Amino acid sequence: MTTLRAAVVGVGHLGRFHAQKYAALDDVELVAVCDVDHARALEVAAVHDTRPVFDHRELADRVDAVTIAADTSAHFELARFFLEHGVHVLVEKPMTATSEEGRELTRIAERNDLRLQVGHVERFNPALLSARERLSSVQFIECHRLAPFKDRGADVNVVLDLMIHDLDLILSLLGNKPVRISAVGIPVLTETPDIANARIEFDTGAIANVTASRVSTTAQRKFRVFHEGHYLSIDFGEGEVQLVSRTESDEGPALREERWSLAKGDALLAEVESFCNAIRTRSPCEVSGHDGVLALEVAERIIADIEARSMRS
After folding, report:
1. pLDDT above 90 for 197
2. Which structural domains are found in the chain, ordered by start?
């Protein structure tokens, strides 16, 4: 099997983990890590015995694939550069600052027959994978994604920083676009919303209620799905799944509870492996550019409703 040459552009908190995953794969060579912060690039390169690069343009002819984990505002230009130079791209979420930029990247990738994957890592979470086959005829979804404030990610509002994870999951489960969205958001520590809630309605009648906060004192990543006769709760942080089902007994309807706990696994490694496999097999990415754009479009509608509500108050 031919070794895939890979690099990571942007090796801050998340990018250095991408570098670690590439370095762990037997059929991948981490040829370089790139960051405009020279000290950071040198540090991560030394850990993985690879080359530090300070200008992404040096990588164009040296790699087959890149992960882009720089600031969101830089995603579009970086991804466009590599796609235009024949390099497959895994871009962290949100894929771009706007859905129009995301659509342009998707067009370039398709035109050049390249893989473009978006880093919605929860799709690879073992808790979701173990429960997904139980999810059918979904009627209501409730999500809570809460985290303490960190400067990392604060270049965008909480909808693009945190909520977008759950938006992607909801859209992947329901498979269609929302028909109505109502949202509220409040800035606390930044000038953009740090806490947000959205009610999303679909033409099937399904409803999702999504809350995200980056000013919580504790972390929480819970995803609850309700459908007729069943209630499924996934705790992404703890890797625990609870299924409550209606059963019939001599006394009438009753509830049966099942619980299972999973080894947390390595969702990021699974994501990177999936990207590399899509390149090798020339198959669609598990989380495509189109998926990334759809999540962005819904996020933009939520943000627009928050802004409209703010102007009315």
Report:
1. yes
2. 4-121+268-287 (3.40.50.720), 123-264+298-312 (3.30.360.10)
